[in-house]
Amino acid sequence: MPQHSPPQEQPLDEKLLQRWEARGVSRRDFIKFCATLTATLALPASFIPQIAEAIEDKRLPVIWMEFQGCTGDTEALLRANQPTVAEIVLDLLTLEYHETIMAAAGHQAEEAKSQALEKYKGKYLAVVEGSIPTADGGVYCTVGGDSALNIVRKICGNAAATIAVGNCAAFGGLPAAAPNPTGAISVKDAVPQATVLNLPGCPLNADNLTATIVHFLTFNQLPATDGLGRPLFAYGKRIHDNCERRAHFDAGQYAEAFGDAGHRQGYCLYKLGCKGPETFHNCPTIRYNEGVSWPVMAGHGCIGCAEPGFWDTMSPFYRRLPQVPGFPVEATADKIGVGLVAATAVAFGAHAVGSAFRKGDAMESDKVIKED
Amino acid sequence: MLEIRYVWEWPVRITHWINASSVILLSATGLFIAHPFAIIGVETMAWARLVHIVVAYAFLCSVLFRFYWMLVGNQHASWRAFIPWLTAEGRRNFVKMLRYYTFTGKKISYEVGHNPVAALAYLGIFALFIFQIVSGFALYGQYAPEGFWGGLFVILNPLVSSQYLRLSHHMVMWMLLGFLVNHLYSAWLMDVKERNGTMSGIFSGYRYIEPEDL
Asked: What does the pLDDT read at residue A6?
């Protein structure tokens, strides 16, 4: 039997802790923050000192752009309720441009953007919130007189890396839902040659953004991704497989309606249309709002906001399967299916009656012997 | 003189019955997975999924074996039997059979193996089988995206969203159940009209052929 020794303690540099204390961040909070990030990134505890070092005084220039979005992702980032964490996040970044929180406006703001672009060319991080409209020459979203498509091509094309935050930027999201009047597309589709990391969600989980940025600072590269460009540390597992209500699913215990006995007992939300079985995200483990809760914990099924085709394929939210294309809303897959089988049975039943009374069509050679 | 001919070799019969029972078991458990309910003392969903997945593997092996047998089996088992329109005779018999089915022709095209209309239907059924296997295992593979079946899902994901994969998997089940109705009826009809042991043939492998009728 191999001997398992407990992981070696990795003392953090005393001076580093003191510097954070001088900034008003207690060493306990700082170590907690580094440990949380390390765990979120699924790295071993031995990486904590490396991460603590990486996030000190590395101010990464960031250009944050918003197009067809609702500012929900900005809100998610700014609403981090532990002030120390928010401070650390803002210390990690030099936000050169962010329409919602920058002091400058108008021409000044645009100038800040183009200056940052020149000064940090190839070194800055671009963050995009919202989808990119392409219909009618991109007139549906313009900033400073230029179309979103032009801006995103210029800014993301010259960035060290681009992070698409929220489902709209990552996959088109709500603006791209049928009939998609603005021709909305994702950032990756708008700038195929750029290095784009997708952090979908509605909104994204700010902890995943922080972890991604810290990963970038620590290892100088973006974290490993899945086939849809989402980091595996956050989107590598399905919600359903990590869900706290999974035991009820396996046992066949389901809430049938909101507020019924099963719902009150915390049964599985599968029959209320929970999209946990089709959604990859780390909600069950890191949760939202500093780990307070997440939708399924609060008693509402997952709506699949981290997946491509969110809205069109994840709705109706309270049904398991999407609508069958070309059929009215009330027609579920099962109604159509039962109809199909019934129609087959009726058609062949009628054919059977016709065939049974049909004369002279059976194979009868001369050698058929009829017994009387 | 009536001949007893060995038409359906044992792999054809074995895979036929494995496929048939798989379709029934997979549909039953699949319907339960879509509309589950509790039975006190039983882990209903866990059992339904276990049976669904185990039977899915049996079905996969059966379908693969049948495909192999299409290459090495006799002329009635061969892949050529499923594309009747390749020969002039096949096309002629296809029209003849279609006319019989639609009450516009008088006589059945008398065949030793599959009649050309049935063969065409089975070609479609095999396509649906492949679709169910691919979509089913892709959905199953979501529990481990880095795994073998998960790789299949990664390939399919940019092409079709997992929800439409789920919806089509469900709808094709209904199409297969519709086919089941059709298949049972046609077997009955041919047993009555051909009078050559259509029904017993799929158990024994033998059919009773009058060469003069061919």
From this structure: 63
Mean pLDDT of B108-116: 86
Asked whether the beta carbons of residue B42 and residue A252 sit closer than 8 angstroms, the reply is: yes
Residue with tokens 């059979």: B97
CATH number of the domain enclosing A229: 3.40.50.700
CB contact under 8 A, B38 and A348: no
- Kindly report the average pLDDT of chain A as a whole number: 88
User: Where residue B109 falls among pLDDT bands split at 50, 70, 90?
Assistant: confident
Contact A338 B38 (CB under 8 A): no
How does the average pLDDT of chain B come out, rounded? Answer: 92
What sections of A5-82 are H helices per DSSP?
14-22, 27-40, 48-54, 72-78
Give the Å distances, CA to CA, from A10 to A17, A20, A31, A217.
13, 18, 11, 20
Size of interface A-B (CB pairs under 8 A): 145
Instruction: Delimit the domains of chain B by residue range.
Output: 3-213
Chain A hits for B110, CB-CB cut-off 8 Å, are 363
Q: Looking at beta carbons, which residues of chain A come within 8 Å of B178? A: 340-341, 343-344
Identify whether residues A212 and A245 lie together within a single domain.
no
Give me the residues paired with residue A68 across strands: A131
- Which residue's entry shows tokens 């609060």? A298
Instruction: For an interface test with B, give the residue of A335, A355, A358, A370 to mutate (most B CBs within 10 A).
Output: A355
Query: What is the distance in angstroms between the Cα of A341 and the nearest Cα belonging to chain B?
Result: 4
- Whole-angstrom distance between the N-terminal and C-terminal Cα of chain B? 12
Task: For residue range A56-94, list pLDDT tens digits in order.
Answer: 766 788 899 999 999 999 888 877 655 555 566 666 777
In this predicted complex, what is the ipTM? Answer: 0.89
Sequence-ordered list of residues with C-beta below 8 angstroms from that of B91, at least 6 positions apart, any chain: B84, B85, B116
Quick: pLDDT tens for A357-371: 888 788 776 666 767
| Domain boundaries, position A229 | 58-234
Chain B residues in contact with A305 (beta carbon < 8 A): none
Closest by alpha carbon to A263, among A271, A273, A254?
A: A254
Comparing alpha-carbon positions, the chain B residue that sits nearest to A171 is B158
CA distance B133 to chain A (A): 18
What is B3-213's CATH number?
Answer: 1.20.950.20
Query: Using a CB-CB distance cutoff of 8 angstroms, which residues of chain A are in contact with residue B196?
Result: 363
**What's the gap between Cα B185 and its chain centre?**
15
The predicted pLDDT at position B54 comes to: 98
Beta-carbon contacts of A178 under 8 Å, excluding residues fewer than 6 positions away, are A312
Domain identity same for A93 and A211: yes
Q: pLDDT tens across B3-18, in order? A: 899 999 999 999 999 9
* Whether A203 contacts A166, CB under 8 Å: yes
Q: Do B185 and A314 touch (CB under 8 A)?
A: no
Of A278, A355, A365, the CB nearest to B166: A278
The answer to whether residue A372 sits within a structural domain is no
Residue contact B38–A253, C-beta within 8 A? yes
Whether residue B174 and residue A338 make contact (CB cut-off 8 A), yes or no, is yes
- Read off the DSSP letter of residue A82: -
